[in-house]
Amino acid sequence: MLKLFTPAKAPSYRQERVAEEIRFLLSQQLQKDCLPIEYAEGGDLLKPSVPITITALDVSPDLRHAQIGIMPLGGIEQELAIKFMDANAWHLRKFLAKQLKIRVTPTLCFYLDNRFEQAAKIDSLIMKSKNTQKN
């Protein structure tokens, strides 16, 4: 994940509102399944066969950058999903520019969010430690 900004304090109310609006609009676009770039230049299929979930969205304090965590359903085809979203980033940004009522539309930077994998690993470690304490 790129660290375009490191917040020194909690996000402002405006940052949170913009982030929620971007999440809502991007989710709508992903549900409509109408993104134009589905094939790479070599003719390989870029579009994953499973739906993509937006798991996290952080907006920089100046509202110029948005980091978007995504995860395909079931965690399969992760690399394909990130390539697909990166290829369509310009189209998504153009869509956001028409919908959002802000001066500057943020640049979209996608990354694979592995929070669920980390949570599952922590849960398994906790369960393992509970089982060893009982014995």
CATH architectural name: 2-Layer Sandwich
Q: What structural category arises from helix and sheet content?
A: alpha+beta
Q: Biggest sheet, in brief?
A: 3 strands, mixed
Q: What is the CATH level 1 assignment? A: Alpha Beta
Runs with pLDDT <50, length 5+? none
- Give the number of DSSP strands: 3
Question: Radius of gyration over alpha carbons?
Answer: 18 Å
Order of helices and strands: HEEHHEH
The portion of residues forming beta strands comes to 15-25%
Q: What's the end-to-end separation, in Å? A: 41 Å
Helix content: 40-55%
Task: Give a short synopsis of this structure.
The protein has 4 helices and 3 strands; from the N terminus they run H-E-E-H-H-E-H. The chain has helices at 13-32, 78-87, 89-99, 115-134, and strands at 52-59, 65-72, 107-112.
Could you describe the 3D structure shown?
The protein is α+β, with helices and mostly antiparallel strands and 135 residues long. The protein has one domain: 2-Layer Sandwich (GMP Synthetase, Chain A, domain 3), CATH 3.30.300.20. Helices cover 45% and strands 16% of the residues. A three-stranded mixed beta sheet has the order 1-2-3, covered by helices on one side. The longest helix is centred in the N-terminal third of the chain and has 20 residues, at 13-32. The termini are far apart.
